[in-house]
Every structure is written in structure tokens, then in C-alpha cells.
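Service request form, structural biology core

Requester: graduate student, group of Dr. S.
Request type: structure prediction, single chain
Budget code: on file
Notes: please return the result as C-alpha cells.

Sequence provided:
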Amino acid sequence: MAQKKLRILLAESSDGDTAETLRALFDGSEEALELAVVATVATLIPTIRMLDPEIILLDLSLSLRDPLDAVHLVHRSAPGTPLVVLADPSQKQFAAQSLSAGAMDYVLKGFLDARVLDRLLRTALARNTFEGLTDLLRDQLTGLYSREGLLTLGGRCMEEAQRTGTSLVLICALFENLQTLREGFGPGAADEAVRDVARLLAATCRRSDIIARLGHAQFALLAVDALASSAPVLRQRLERHLTIHNEARSPWDPIDLRLSVGTWTAKDVRSFEQLLDNVETDLRSVTPVEHAVGRS
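Core staff response, request fulfilled:
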């Protein structure tokens, strides 16, 4: 991990061993890690205010009623701080739901080791590092990363995947009827439809994944540390969210997206820019009938 002192707040029951794993990851160095551990929800929020942590790790078992209560509480108190949920295997359903409640990612306790914890911390730090950069990395309309932002973060994600032997999944989407909506309903409706696409992509992925607006009508979703076999699952999830959105019938016409999916493994010699170029080329070369989804 980085040598600067990292402020981490761990909210976990007293019998947990995450604190020991964290200290081992930092070689027990108090110069590199400032770790605060709380064992109750009652002390969680005051500690957040006192420590101002850069990362929060939260055990779902601390919630006495709904396991997501503490997630909502933490997200309201520190919405800009990366939150990672720890859960027993029996709580996997709630752990997955925590991503919609404000968590950046989750991990099941039986799978939490130094390597996984290192990856979670690096992802959280990378997100914090880049969120404060100039508008060059952000799209002003949606708040998503720009093409430059995606290339910058994607390159780093690929370097990390190369080091750990993991994979990346990249989905590019073309908003085919955006100009039609603009001509029929005006620029305000078109802008809101673009924001709808951004929200659909956000609903499809984890908060640790990266979403970007590449151009006027083109988007990308980069799933970090994902299995290549999860590519069709992500695509189906996006198509399902799009179908639900279109069935709700906004004041304008349904959104039509053309999708293209690419994967990268640690054995692949391509750079991230080459991966993006290849997926974008595939997106433009297919016919609308092959890849358009959500049409009425």
C-alpha cells in the first residue's frame, strides 16, 4: 500500500479478524495506517466525525434490525467516503443490495484475505484521488467520467489487473435515437434522456466500477476485477433495467441503446486504449438490428 498514513474506520464485531488483516497488510506500521475500530452502531457516526476517514469498512451484522440500516446511516453521514461492506455468506443478498444503498463494494467474510483487502483499498484510494481532478476527467452534463477520465483510470485498472491476474469487462453503448428525441422534444428532453442513460448504467454496476460518457451519444461501463464470464450477465442486467425504464414511459420516446462488449485478461497484451478502440469499432460496425435493445 502507499506509504502515506491512511485513515481507515472499521466497524466490526469484537470477534472479527479484519483489523489483524489490515495491520498485517501495513506490516504493523503506525506511520502508514491510522485505524479506528468500533464495535457498535452507536459509536460509528461520532467516530466518523472525529476521524474523517478516507475509507470505511462496515460489518452488516452490527445492524440490529434491517442489515442495511447502518449502510444508509453511514452513507448519509459521509456520502463522499468509499464504503466497503463486510458480510457473512448468509447475508449475501443484503450485501448485494448495499451497493444500491451507497456502498462502493462488498466482500463476504470467508473470502476476505490480504489480497482482496489490498484490492479494495487501492480501488477506494484511486476513486478518491481522481474524483477531485479538473473537469477534463468529468462530463459536465452527467457527472460521469469523460473519455480522458476513462482512459486514465482504465489504464491504472489494467495495470492492477495485470499484477493480480484478474480480468476487466468493458461495455460500450450508443444512444441511437438521441438526436430524434432532441428534434422531437427539445434539448431539455434530450439532456434528461442522457442523464437517464447514466442512471441506467449506474444501476447496472458496482460503485467500484467506472462509468463514462465518451461522446455526445456514447457511453462506457468498465467492470473492474470481473470474470470474463460475467460479461453477458452485465449486458442482460443493463437490458433489463432499460426495459423497465422504457415500460415506465417517460414523456418522450423509449431509449434505444446499441451495445458492444469486450473483455480483457491478464494474458492479453493490449493496452486499455486498444481495448476501448476495439469495442468502439465493434459497436459501430454492427447493424442496429443486432445490438439495439429497448425498442417498442
